[in-house]
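Exercise 4. Each item below gives a protein and its sequence. For each, produce the structure-token representation.

Item: Fibronectin leucine rich transmembrane protein 3 (Plethodon asupak).
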Amino acid sequence: PSLQDLTNLRRLVLDGNLLNNNGLGENVFINLINLTELSLVRNSLSAPPVNLPGTSLRRLYLQENHMNRVPANAFADLRQLYRLDMSNNNISVLPQGIFDDLDNLTQLFLRNNPWYCGCKMKWVRDWLQSLPSKVNVRGLMCQAPERVRGMTIKDLNTELFDCKDTDVINTIQITTAMSNTLYPAQGHWPDSVTRQPEIKNPEVNKNYRTTATPIRKIITINVKSVTMDTVHISWKVALPMTALRLSWLKMGHSPAFGSITETIVTGDRNEYLLTALEPESPYRICMVPMETSNIYLSDETPVCIETE
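Answer:
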């Protein structure tokens, strides 16, 4: 029998079969009314398959394909779906309202896609901020345009989406000094895990710049060079908060999957040591408050420093 005849099928795994959209056809899944899980990982899909069965489908896995577009009706009527994974594809934008029918969605994974955080993605920021806490969304990290690269879409303020086609970002200069006497207390600063670069003599008085922040600064960051591959980050916060998100990204090349590293630091911390950085490579380091009960942080812009 063909797939269309397997109306009692509940779980279908077709991983790693080089399937493409033309080969699947338009109605291959339409009769699988009892299907609760469909996995199409590591295939050659350019978009999600059409006419997915919405009666019972709860888990849909589409990661590691070649998807570069997602039609607005791709997930129409999938009202039972609670887990959707489109990680490791080539998707840069999402059409507005694409998740409107997913009434039971609680897990959405979109890691390692080249998200372009322009005006067309502002609706995603608004949608994310409206979600209840039970919905877990991961992987919406901006890769372009350059001014927001490395930032999380949920944390961008309205001006950064550039909906009026402006591209003016003021920068300020900060001069930092190297310290040879900085030794972290054991277990105090987690180390980043990257390849170990060759050791060179550290430069002193390196210049860093931060993107412009509101007049009422919530976070103030200071960076000091320790060695050529290590920097010490310290910060001050104007309001109490439970946690902050710290991320760092190597700049100067096209975005590579996995190039952004982020960690969560608790609100009582005020310093962090980044190690094993690539010498003489610029990095963007960003901090933003995590969820907090303080109403003044609802539209706070991430504070970023770019090393040169």
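Check: The longest helix spans residues 122-130.
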